[in-house]
TrEMBL record:
It comes from Paenibacillus chungangensis. It comes from the Bacteria. The chain crosses the membrane at residues 20-38, 44-68, 89-107, 119-141, 148-171, 200-218. It holds the Pfam family FLQE3_permease. The lineage of its organism: Bacteria, Bacillati, Bacillota, Bacilli, Bacillales. Keywords: Membrane, Transmembrane, Transmembrane helix. InterPro entries: FLQE3_permease. This is ABC transporter permease.
Length: 236
């Protein structure tokens, strides 16, 4: 029940601060962009846009929301309630994953129609969004200014764009199999061609493992750099 309350609080907070309105404009811009792409390239463009969308949404918005909440003094009173840190983090990840999923379908349907494997496609979007959201929270917790957060979040995310080099046929390496975004591309491309079961299993496994790892890191970062500072401020 606490987790659901935290989720609805996050959705209302994001709506009140105009995140949904901005994202509607972004989706409309993506939709217009797709209309000008030649038909033979639309599938590849749809995968690329769908890949970048949950990544950018989670990476930029989650840390930005955390900084905004910190400026508004929300974190101290929030954890005076029975809400737990895990519930707070999962509510953030879930609220942005829902927004990412809606945006991904809004981009994909006009470009390429109904995916052949809608469940794999949707799970790819959700797991990528949650990974990037938790990564963003971990980075945002460690920095006090928007400029520092924006710079460091890009540096943290840089290794995870490497699978795009394989996607464009520029460079391939077995090391990409260890990256969560390789799993993302596999699941998004399953919208057109369902991969072999072993490759599909690998995509889910690598995304789930990275989500678990980044959750632990984001939780530690939040406890150390946000909650401990809030407690120190209250003691002064």
């Amino acid at each position: 029940m606490r987790a659901f309350s935290a989720l609805t609080f996050d959705i209302r907070f994001q709506w009140r601060h105009g995140f949904y309105a901005v994202y509607m404009v972004v989706c409309a811009a993506y939709w217009l962009l797709v209309q000008f792409i030649p038909e033979p390239l639309r599938e590849q463009a749809a995968v690329l846009l769908t890949f970048s969308d949950p990544s950018a949404l989670g990476l930029l918005m989650a840390g930005g929301i955390l900084l905004l909440e910190r400026d508004q003094g929300i974190h101290g009173p929030l954890f005076a309630s029975p809400l737990r840190i895990g519930e707070y983090l999962l509510a953030k990840a879930a609220s942005l994953a829902l927004l990412s999923l809606a945006a991904a379908w809004a981009i994909h349907l006009p470009a390429a129609g109904m995916p052949d494997a809608p469940l794999s496609f949707s799970l790819g979007v959700i797991l990528t969004s949650t990974f990037m959201t938790l990564l963003s929270i971990g980075v945002g917790a460690r920095h006090r200014t928007v400029n520092a957060f924006l710079l460091m979040s890009q540096l943290y995310a840089l290794p995870f764009v490497l699978p795009l080099l394989r996607f464009f046929g520029i460079w391939d390496s077995p090391i990409m199999l260890l990256l969560p975004t390789e799993g993302t591309l596999t699941l998004l491309q399953s919208a057109y061609i369902l991969p072999p079961p072993l490759k599909l299993l690998h995509a889910f496994a690598v995304l789930l493992l990275w989500n678990a790892a980044v959750y632990a890191w984001a939780r530690t970062s939040y406890e150390r750099y946000v909650l401990e500072r809030e407690k120190a401020r209250e003691r002064q």
